[in-house]
Amino acid sequence: MALLKKDKVNIIKAYRELTPMAQLAKEYSVSRQAIYKIIKKAGVPTMKGPYTVSCDCCGKPTTKTRSRIRKQKHVFCSMDCYKAFLQAGNGFPYIGNRNGQRTARSIVSQYFQLKEGYIVHHENRNALDNRLSNLKVFRNQGDHIRYHRGFDVVPIWDGASIDSFI
User: Fold this and answer.
1) Which residues pair with 157 in a beta bridge?
2) Helix, strand, or coil here: 64?
């Protein structure tokens, strides 16, 4: 099946918006080579090398690869800009040390026997907010990551259920 001119325009637009060629090929039921030819014919650069983008904190131009840009919601030119972005209240709060996490483990261990490998999770991602209603315990790091990624993972302990009785 031949692609319409409208499809080709949409492919070029999607590629410029960092959609991978493989995903476009699957979506339009053509080969990656066909996508490559469409993009190349339109004069769009297809190099895997670095692209120049602006830092989300200071606006300074920085170079990143397409895959790095696709994987991250925000792009920063340096670690200093990343920390400044977090301290300005964007994303989750920047916590410079792990004392909040250690404190959370000691609080949870008063109500639940923590074993090695159990992960204490702060629901609002603020490691200094150690209210029981903000703390959950997961069996391992894998369950914890799956929970962050939106899978239906039930924690083995939830402080919110205890906090309502206190």
Assistant:
1) 137
2) strand
